[in-house]
Amino acid sequence: MKWSNFNVSKSLPTPLYHQIYSHLRDCIQNGIFPPGSLFPSESQIEKELNVSRITARRAMDELSARGLISRQQGKASRVAAYRPSTHLLAGVEGMIENNRRMGDSTTVELLSHETIAATEDVARTLKVKRGEPVLWSVRVRSLDGVPFSYAVTYLPQVVTRQIKAEQMSAKPLLALLEGAGITIGRAEQVISAKNATAAVARALHIERGEALLVSERVVYDLADRPVEWITVQYRPDIYQYGVDLERTQSAKGNVWSTSKGKKSTKSIHEPTIAGAKKRTIRSELS
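The structure assignment produced for this chain is given below.
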């Protein structure tokens, strides 16, 4: 298949630049353009696909924003090479230390933070009075410059008296809690899925409506007080959740259970690109 064997259609509701972006994205993912190889220029796309330079540029901008190609002023564009990764291993019992190590290989951007009055849901989850001040924040975590998680967090006053919102872009929140003298006792977590809203899609450099892995977690201290309510939406092409299981006997017969003595893990892996070796980062709570 030749990348230029593609016809844009003005009769479709999809913008021309997005039709081209989707086509070239598929060419990259299908190995037509191997990692590190030269990529067509704006002028080549303009000529071969018979579109305007503006349309070609917007398609290139989309590919670049999603980390699929590398562009430098005055140089030819190349398909993004497969990124190196650092291996991290930790189970639930080591989540504080694991988050420190995860913080070394990823970056966090604090998009928003504000002290708000607790809604009914927030008050019930954090066990505070409705209307009581809580800190709301939105953070995006990236691996090698590619955003993979969108986290919305609520913190009660018992935490915000000791932690400033600005610190949340420098260290993992669980490490900040520990540093403030708050000892984590347990956590309740639910895994689900949902479609990306427009705001989340923009932050994660994906398409609106794409499926995301969702982790909703309430963290408690040793006194069993909720100290954090966090909902994280993950790109499934970069982040996966895994649990080790073993076959055991019970009164009801053989059943599956979490492996004793083994650490359940979550894994972050980089986007699969044809011809590239898959590498994995394994981590616990982000």
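Interim note for the steering committee: Residues 83-99, 261-286 have pLDDT under 50 and may be disordered. Residues 213 and 270 are 15 Å apart (CA to CA).
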